[in-house]
């Protein structure tokens, strides 16, 4: 409809900003970046396993530089096109705003391993650099409209969820304290202080139950039994809240879509189901 | 009502195709095949246990051949009656379509152990052949109308479930990476790479908690505690989605049945409950 | 309102039959029997622990005979008053009907330890007799109106629950078979046959995760990881069904109570909440 | 609006009583006390760990006395302002009523460690005193309006929850008895009595599954498998009840807020979302 063809910067901006993309789904550029992120996470995961890395150092090094280069180019492009978001202000301000935005900082953090590479064979730094590369994974969330649905469902129950977390935290501290009192003498290594008891309390209240620590005295087991039953409630409370939240969010989405379809004036011939 | 009696092929087709069967429930032929499948799965299960198999080789061999023969006959009959599904096209095309359909391939796969039997005493092949026999189990799903209800409930929440799986996958990768960074030095065998850490991350996030691997350092345990609490959310999200899906699907089914009963014009005298 | 006082047999019948009792809650006789059952279960539980039993044989023997005598008297009374349920038929038929009813058989089974007591110091028989005494516990279900609510909620979702159990059973067999194929060579003791694998499969799919058996090979762990994630679904399906069932049953109960209150003509002045 | 400035006692009373505070949220005084409670719980937690306590005895001793002094002052102030709750009665009666109220007793209990401090280096008493300090945590519940929401949601399903606990208790006793009968001979240490079996039964039915005790006989494992599957139901029942309760409570709260907003006569211009 527009008689003039938009500039390259404008077209790149529309491609890279999920909210600017007019059609449903993701833009071709973001689809490709998404796939590259998944591929890069897979490479970083396999690279960490020495039995896979050994003998393939060259391949992994090449892939790292290649992927790092692409993501660096993407980052620089995003800085270049940033002024399109605010065409009236000065370009440098829009660019600075992108660089210090959470998305921009996340991008930079995920790029930093490229620079850390040459710090020598310090095991911890290497592992940390790999973790930063895997942080790219979190960038995927920005691209998806479905993620917004999840956020909305969680946000609508903010208060209840915070309350659930507080109740869970209180239960955790009180359970750990109780076992510290009754079991601390018998197993000082595992229950000799409240922070130590907490490892057991978390494993029990979440029903993970590793079994590396467990009460051995009679009274400790009776207390642990009551706490384990309360652990069911701990699961039941957030489950109940989230179940209701998702049910409501999905229903509202359906109502909104139905309303949009009616407002559009004609049914698209899709089966009613 | 039809003045002519339908042909044998037609009658067999109606018996064997769950959707063609006019009455409620399963046809007599499918009921018998269903029971034979259950029996055959039971036989294959017991046969795999050497303490039961030893001394009863003859019985198991006979049962295998007998059941294999019946299922072979069923498979050939299904090929023979296939043209009834498309009476106007050529018979060979309908038959080929059945053979290459998922149901037809599943049938053939479950029959193949009959041929693999003589491959000698190679342990892995024998186990694989038994697994194929147990695949028959999956055929039961085709016979049941209730299975369609389950499918419908899941399909109606396709998007939310895919989203839940993606969030769970992301949480899994990030949890494994975190523990790899903080616990990798202390336990290189269990946390020395991201794929290794993932075994721990799955056991924790699903709350299975085998306990064969668990963090032992202070900081590792603090991180693991946070991840275990997030594991509750991992369970809560699909549970919430499925709870809402089943609730809605069951309600719609009731509304549909109610509508069908009213359309029928008279109440069948069943108690209102 | 009745001018004649009902007979002793009639009054006992009304006291002992939960459905005959006109007021809300349980009748005094059933309340006392319920408490005696709880007490008797507690006695049988403590008696099984040798460190508690040793030195207190006399007390336990006396309590057993006393409680056994009371429950025997209750059983005989129930036989005596049975004809009140069907005043027009012959008395012996109503009594026989009670004796062969599930409730009557359960009563008799729970009494039988009184006779088994003198079978000598055979450990298994003694344990079995104690279990029969604890079966009395199941009798409590008959007394409670709330139990009927639970039954109703479960019955209304009969089909979905049966379906959920079938899906769970299928998943169990297929999981056990898969691990038997991929892990059988590495750990023949734990995964060397499908029944053996099932112990692991149950512990994983229910997320109990004892950790006494767990895959140790790479491929086994990858398969086990997928199965553990499916285990979440296994929990989510019945949870979703039951959540919806309870929600609906509770709502219907409220509607029914509301309707009953309105039909009564006046509000009982209770706060609206 | 009031022409006279209220007395100091009145103003303190309004600050300290969550229900008297006219604005939304907590009063400044209660906010500060809440933070001090959290800080004091953190101090008591860290102090119990000998590796942190050793060398910092002075700091912990000072913090203890300081926090104890503040909470003592708060307690005395609450006693002093208590008559404001009942201005017409005699002052001593209102004060006594506060001292013997649950909140007053909890306050006193949490203060008592100050006096127990000098009882010498008896390990158990020291641990018990620390537990009392952590009991302060429970006081936080009184300050929060959200806690009332949780209480209301649970109270509305009182009957179902009690029923769920009873079913769970029955299942627990019957499971423990069953395993005691079938596994008692093979593992007398872990299953040799019903109370011993109960430790296993709790770990299984709650799906915690420590793995310190697990059946090893064939028949014991078959029984344990059935019980573990029932454990899913044990989780599903309270989860279902709580999910419905929270869903309803949240909906009613929204309806109430909506009604309050309409009654207020004008919309506050907040986005409809």
UniProtKB/TrEMBL annotation, chains A, B, C, D:
Compartment(s): Membrane
Stretches that traverse the bilayer: 161-182, 198-218, 224-246
GO cellular component annotations of the record: voltage-gated potassium channel complex
Pfam families membership: Ion_trans (PF00520)
Stretches assigned to the Ion transport domain: 32-253
UniProt keyword terms in alphabetical order: Ion channel, Ion transport, Membrane, Potassium, Potassium channel, Potassium transport, Transmembrane, Transmembrane helix, Transport, Voltage-gated channel
A GO term for molecular function: voltage-gated potassium channel activity
GO-annotated biological processes: action potential
Membrane-topology descriptor: Multi-pass membrane protein
PANTHER family recorded: POTASSIUM VOLTAGE-GATED CHANNEL PROTEIN SHAB, VOLTAGE-GATED POTASSIUM CHANNEL
Name recorded for this polypeptide: Voltage-gated potassium channel
